[in-house]
Design a protein that fits this description.
Layout (H helix, E strand, L loop, with lengths): L8 E6 L1 H4 L13 H12 L4 E4 L7 H15 L3 E5 L2 H4 L6 H15 L5 E6 L6 H4 L2 H17 L3 E4 L21 H14 L20 H25 L11 E6 L10
Length: 263
């Protein structure tokens, strides 16, 4: 990877992680690591263009079919692809089909962009995620194999201990906080061969953990506000992204969109 490389365009493909949940801005919209990365790249390159096709709740088959061909047609310098975790978190999943959809997406994107970036998504430490961890790790093996086969950049967020710290996760326990997204942006920035601004892996400062009563209150709120609605959507076949358009569907100069107004 060339150090201090120059990039003129970025297209982000994926689900809620790339859409930016739950890095919430004052107006209720989401920012996230891809917007932060685009802002930093735009500061280096006049006329820098950015598109974010990500939609929350999308499965890898939907990403491969709906987003990958659109992103490929844009011919960007950098394309980021993160997907498959929504599949892995479902009660029943055919990991062979997940592999096939991931391969299709990568084979569509890799020849059409200057640099393809794949990621092993971070995972929060805690009992809810433990039951899915073997499936997640199977997914990440597939992603690693695809990165090696197609000469893609692989950003291993899952292997970074700090990104498992519950303090970097929103109350829904599925999405990173603003600080978590900021660290991901730095990780991708460095993986692209750009000069580090900080060590994104550095642990958070030690703190006194909350007591038993506070933890139980947090657990109850999580179950009521996030877990039960998520289970309800799974049972009914609905998705949080149903009917939702792409965050930033066109490859436009960075200042021409709305997502950067509060970066």
């Amino acid at each position: 990877m060339e150090m201090n490389a120059s990039y003129t365009s970025l297209v982000a493909v994926g689900d809620s992680f790339t859409e930016g949940m739950s890095d919430e801005l004052p107006d209720g919209s989401y920012r996230g690591w891809a917007d932060l990365l685009a802002a930093r790249l735009a500061a280096r390159e006049p006329g820098f263009r950015y598109a974010n096709l990500a939609v929350r709740g999308k499965l890898i088959g939907q990403i491969a079919e709906e987003q990958a061909p659109v992103a490929a047609a844009m011919g960007a310098d950098v394309v980021t692809l993160v997907g498959g975790l929504n599949d892995a978190l479902r009660p029943k999943v055919d990991m062979g089909r997940v592999r096939g959809h991931l391969e299709a997406a990568v084979e569509t994107l890799a020849p059409s962009c200057g640099r393809l970036v794949l990621m092993r998504s971070p995972g929060r430490r805690g009992p809810v995620m433990e039951r899915f961890r073997p499936r997640m790790e199977e997914l990440f093996v597939i992603i690693g194999e695809l990165a090696a086969r197609h000469d893609a950049v692989l950003v291993d967020l899952y292997g970074a201990e700090v990104l498992g710290d519950p303090r970097l996760w929103h109350a829904d326990r599925l999405h990173l906080t603003g600080e978590g997204h900021r660290r991901v942006a730095e990780a991708v920035w460095q993986a692209l061969g750009l000069p580090p601004e900080e060590d994104w892996r550095v642990p958070l400062a030690d703190s006194v953990p909350p007591g038993w009563a506070v933890r139980r209150a947090h657990d109850a709120r999580f179950a009521r506000e996030h877990l039960l609605p998520w289970i309800g959507r799974r049972l009914s076949g609905r998705s949080s992204g149903d009917g939702r358009p792409a965050k930033r569907p066109e490859l436009l100069p960075f200042g021409a969109g709305t997502g950067e107004r509060l970066l």
